[in-house]
Amino acid sequence: MTEFGALRLAFPAGRSSLAQAILTAQSDEAINFRSFQDAGLLSRSFKTGETIFKHADPMAELYCVESGRLGLYRGDRQLLVVGPNGIFGEMSSIENELSDATSIAETDVTLAAVSQKGFVLH
Q1: Nearest-angstrom CA–CA distance, 97 and 91
Q2: Which of 45, 46, 50 is nearest to 33 (CA)?
Q3: What CATH number is associated with residue 44?
Q4: What is the pLDDT of residue 43?
Q5: pLDDT exceeds 80 at position 78
Q6: 119 close to 23: Cβ distance less than 8 angstroms
Q7: Domain containing 40: what range?
Q8: According to DSSP H, which parts of the chain are helical?
Q9: How many structural domains compose the chain?
Q10: Which among 12, 21, 23, 106 would be 20 to 30 A from 38, CA to CA?
Q11: Band of pLDDT at residue 86, cut at 50, 70 and 90
Q12: Pair 116, 93: CB distance under 8 Å
C-alpha cells in the first residue's frame, strides 16, 4: 500500500515501483519510465496537433508525459501546458468522471498511460 496524503493506493503485485513513479512525478525527481515498461504498460505517441482526448470523453486512464508537450483546453482557452514528467487526467480517472478539458499535442508527445486496471483504490 502506498499513501499519498489522504489517498491510499494499493497496486497489484509488481506495480509498487509504478506507484512510486506516479506519486513522485511532480517532485524534483524524473519519472523512471522503465518502471512503466517493467509493469507491462505501453507508451502512446501523438503527433503535433493530434487530439489525445476531448472534453466530456470518459476517462479511464491517467497519463504521464515521457517527452514532448501538450495543452489542456476548454473551448479556445488554454488551461494548462503539460511537459515531461507531468501528470494529467488523474482525478477524472480515479473518480471515473468525464474529462473536463480537451488535450491536444503541442509537439510530438509520448505518454505513459495507466488504466484504472493498473491501480486499485482503497
Answers
A1: 8
A2: 45
A3: 2.60.120.10
A4: 84
A5: yes
A6: no
A7: 2-121
A8: 16-23, 34-38, 90-94
A9: 1
A10: 106
A11: confident
A12: yes
Q: Which of the 8 DSSP states describes residue 8?
A: E
* Tens-place pLDDT, residues 17-76: 444 444 444 444 566 666 666 666 678 999 999 999 999 999 888 888 989 999 999 999
What does DSSP assign to residue 65? Answer: E
Q: Which three cell numbers stand for residue 86?
A: 507531468
* Amino acid 35: pLDDT: 65
CA-wise closest residue to 115 among 41, 14, 21, 65: 41
Apex CA 101: angle with CA 77 and CA 22, to 5°? Answer: 120
Q: How many CB atoms lie within 10 A of CB 77?
A: 8
pTM: 0.69
